[in-house]
Amino acid sequence: MSRAVGVLGTFQSDFRTRDDSRTFVEQAQLAAVGALKDAGMTPDDVDAIVFSLAPTWFMGVADADRWAIDSIFGAGKPMMRVHTGGATGGSAVQAGFNLVRSGMYRSVLVVGAERIAETPDAQEVLNTIFDVFYERDMPLSTNTTVGLWATGYMHRHRVTQEDLAAVAVRARRNAMRNPHAHVKGDVSVADVMASPMISWPLKLFDICPRSSGSAAMVLGNMDMVKKHRSRPAFVTGAASRTTTYWIGDRMTSATDCDFIDFDLAGVVAAASYERAGISDPLRQIQVAEVYDAYTLMQPVQLERLGFCASGMALRLQHEGFWDCEGGAVAVCPSGGTLCTNPIAVSGLVRAIDAANQVMGTAGAMQVPHVKNAVSTAAGGIAQFYNCIVFSNEPRGT
Amino acid sequence: MQDVFVIGLALFPAANAVRELRLEEMAWRTVRAALDSSRVTRSQVDSLTIGACDELDGRPISSMLMSAPSGGYLTDEIKVTDSGASALAFAHARFLAEETDLGLVVSWCKSSKTDVEKVMRLRGDPFYTRPLDLGAIAADAMFAQAMQSEFGLTTGEVNERVAAAYLRASRNPRGMCHAAIPAREVGESSYDAVPVRTAQRAPLTDGACALVLASSGFLRRNPQCKALARLAGVAWNTDSYRIDSNRLHALSAARAAWSDALGRAGLRNANDFDVIELEAPTGWHEAAFVRAFGIERADTVSPSGGAFAQNPIFCNGLVNAAEAVLQVAGQAGPVQLLRVRRAAAHGCHGLAQQGHVVAVFETPGVAA
């Protein structure tokens, strides 16, 4: 019996800073209904649900997934919530994949919503993810830690702030073709450089927005794929890894997982690629939807995902290697996390954008002849990492 | 599809309040003991499934700091936030999917440093439930009221059940060894929320639990490891968010999780079990679940004493799983029942027990 797991349907809302027209549960319902409609399914066709929800501190309702259960047709079904910080959406897709592949369920709805703008200062919340005794007072946040990361990367690989700024320019340009993207536009390197300094060397345009919205993906076994999708995307590789919390321990010469070069991403990609039969990523993968909440995170992941050597991604960028048209790999045709970051579902949105490329449903963002697309998600200051390969055929199952 | 076995486990010594250790240290000691009991090393572990709640742990993304002490270093880790038992359920699925060969399931709760009622009230939606200030105590009382009318439960039966649970718990060396309380004394305690009295509720404790799961393939390759129990089936289900009469009376999620788990294990009814460890935060809950699950043999119910032995809220279901495994393995000590071949562990979570998980364990080699 085939154990292949395919994508039956996807949906993502339009993302914006606030969505006062809907409650959290209505946002989740919008996504659930949208994905089911895309798959041609009814709620009764869903056997189980995975809810994608990162810290609820942002919106102030603990375990808000339970509140949403009736709105997403979950009452009376097996449901669980997955939470791995920024990697949550990727972990949720992996959990859905596991549940279908286990043979326990024919189909699983992966759904979530984010209302991060309910809190006046997300960075203040994110300061509380750090150790209460040693780190909170420094004060660490995602902005300050990635600022330190970017400093180390720039020093090690002799790249500039302008090189990083070009990532934001390309992301916002790509996002102009994405009807769901939060920020988009034709900006220049000079515009990025002139944007307000947040945490050196990161300026406002180097950093993702705080986005509200929702997303959903329905996964199913081969029987469901045959019934609901004429041109499916199959999950052919899915893996996650976690490394040490302590960033300093990732910066010693004895470390297993160097922080600056984000070795963790390479470990996870290797595991995912092996399952998917990817031995030459540059030739076999046409689209990469990487979790790039900061400009820095795009080049460092492209290097670890095997698309180029260490320190080369930003140099190759200037030669158009990562462009959607004429590039070696189309990197974040959606604009990526730099343009839309609803934390609870950011990894899920990356997966949706990658799967849509394989299914040929990416609209104006569509890259031609996509056989394999990869999506990633990162959480907890690059401590958690997830990588999923979507393919146009089932493999190794 | 590969078989899944429990090859080791550990329970942190139950305590009212663990003051000398941080939560990370509690988790580390528990996982260390579980790995040692399994005769495996941490580096052999390829998956970690954490069951933890940020709000109870007191920090967002609590797994950042808790992951490494729980065995998460270059392992495939996913955290579920429903309950410890939910983590076990998901870990089981990962094994059936053949995505892991050796996995840790870890859960904890340091109830003593958490205002549990405040966390429960935060679960209320901001529009309808939050203004009611509904917490776990009131929600449990609503459940008890519904069960009173649904099954005709009497205060006398509930008091007797609590007294019996305390008596069993007093013999459990892994629990608090609370002194046994006579039923009369239970019935004379003050009301917390009608009809639930203070002594009918299990007191909260601090705790942590870790199980080591292995595939049949891993056991073949590692003959030094021995299976304590086979995980024959797991199922879970969730009820509506609305705590209305229909939901409370129907016990739909509890019944569905129970029947699905039995179905997966190839079993017919509660009589197929020698032990059934129930998560019952009050005597009312035990009386209700016994009826909902059709349990006829009183001697099979929670020989560990259940929540009255230790009650680290959130990870109780995983503690029940550990107690069930020990019974199947013949290692439950003073609370061991005779000839236990099959045991069920039940866990529940959410306001008025919105979600339920049931796991079935049996002696390795026992066929349904």
Distance between the amino and carboxyl termini of chain B: 16 Å
Helix share of residues of chain A? 25-40%
Strand content of chain A: 15-25%
Quaternary state, please?
A: heterodimer
Mean pLDDT of chain B: 96
Indicate the CATH topology of the domain at 4-114 and 204-221 in chain B. Peroxisomal Thiolase, Chain A, domain 1
Give keywords:
heterodimer, A: 397 residues, alpha/beta, Peroxisomal Thiolase, Chain A, domain 1, two-stranded antiparallel sheet, 12 strands, globular, B: 368 residues, 9-stranded mixed beta sheet, two-stranded antiparallel ribbon, 13 helices, 36% helix, 19% strand
Blueprint (SSEs and pairs):
The complex is a heterodimer of chains A (397) and B (368).
Chain A: E1 5-12, H1 24-39, E2 48-52, H2 64-68, E3 79-82, H3 88-101, E4 107-115, H4 122-127, H5 142-157, H6 161-175, H7 189-194, E5 197-199, E6 202-203, E7 212-221, H8 222-228, E8 233-242, H9 263-276, H10 281-284, E9 287-289, H11 297-304, H12 313-317, E10 330-331, H13 336-339, H14 346-359, E11 372-379, E12 384-391
Parallel strand pairs in A: 2-3, 2-4, 9-10, 9-11
Antiparallel strand pairs in A: 1-7, 1-8, 4-7, 5-6, 8-12, 11-12
Helix pairs in contact in A: 3-14
Chain B: E1 4-11, H1 23-38, E2 47-51, H2 54-57, H3 63-66, E3 76-80, H4 84-96, E4 102-110, H5 116-122, H6 136-151, H7 155-170, H8 183-188, E5 191-193, E6 196-197, E7 206-215, H9 216-221, E8 229-238, H10 245-250, H11 252-265, E9 275-277, H12 283-292, H13 316-329, E10 342-349, E11 355-362
Parallel strand pairs in B: 2-3, 2-4, 9-10
Antiparallel strand pairs in B: 1-7, 1-8, 4-7, 5-6, 8-11, 10-11
Provide structural commentary:
- The complex is a heterodimer of chains A (397) and B (368).
- With 397 residues, chain A is α/β, with parallel strands linked by helices.
- Chain A has helices spanning 24-39, 64-68, 88-101, 122-127, 142-157, 161-175, 189-194, 222-228, 263-276, 281-284, 297-304, 313-317, 336-339, 346-359; strands at 5-12, 48-52, 79-82, 107-115, 197-199, 202-203, 212-221, 233-242, 287-289, 330-331, 372-379, 384-391.
- In chain A, the strands form two sheets. Chain A has a ten-stranded mixed beta sheet, sandwiched between helices. A two-stranded antiparallel ribbon of chain A has the order 5-6.
- In chain A, a hairpin with a 4-residue loop joins strand 11 and strand 12 (384-391).
- The longest helix of chain A is centred in the first third of the chain and has 16 residues, at 24-39.
- The model of chain A has no long low-confidence stretch (mean pLDDT 96).
- Chain B is an alpha/beta fold and 368 residues long.
- Chain B has a domain at 4-114 and 204-221: Peroxisomal Thiolase, Chain A, domain 1 (3-Layer(aba) Sandwich), CATH 3.40.47.10.
- In chain B, strands 3-2-4-7-1-8-11-10-9 form a nine-stranded mixed beta sheet. Chain B has a two-stranded antiparallel sheet with strand order 5-6.
- At the A-B interface, helix 2, strand 3, helix 3 and strand 8 of A face helix 3, strand 3, helix 4, strand 8 and helix 11 of B.
